[in-house]
Amino acid sequence: MGVITKLSLPLLAALALSACNQEEQSAPAQPPAAKQSAEETVAMKADEAKATQVETSKAQPKAEDLKIVAEGLSKETSDSQQKAITMTQGTVRYFNLEGGFWGIVADDDRHILPQNLPQEYRKDGLRLSFKAQEVKDMMTIQQWGILSKLSNIEVIGKVDSKSGDPRL
Description:
Blueprint: H1 3-26, H2 32-59, H3 63-84, E1 86-95, E2 101-106, E3 111-114, E4 126-134, E5 146-158
Parallel strand pairs: 3-5
Antiparallel strand pairs: 1-2, 1-4, 2-3, 4-5
Helix pairs in contact: 1-2
């Protein structure tokens, strides 16, 4: 049974009880027999609501099951974090878009937008070896490449600069 159904059944029962109470209050004085049938209806609705709650409580997972699922999720998260840190080689490039930014074109043609490229490595055409970990909880205005934090950065060479600016 879906979460919405589990939450909505008790709510529907409460609304039905509320509607019955409003009818009872707004209706003119009735003979005791009619009043008794309205009370019976309310009691029946309450019994149905209790039965529904019993059914939904049977469908809820046990604490042991939740613990097993949580352990599995945390293991998957740690595995994916370890996989996300990869040793890569690439060429530093300066892109004169959106005010200009530094990017790295990896040897496997991935575009890496470094979040923390140190100043000494900001040279167009510089070849680097580095570890990159993707940053998933941030956005940038560059809309280019995979936003990443770099570590273990080493210079492995230099290629021709594609920038027309001699300062780069």
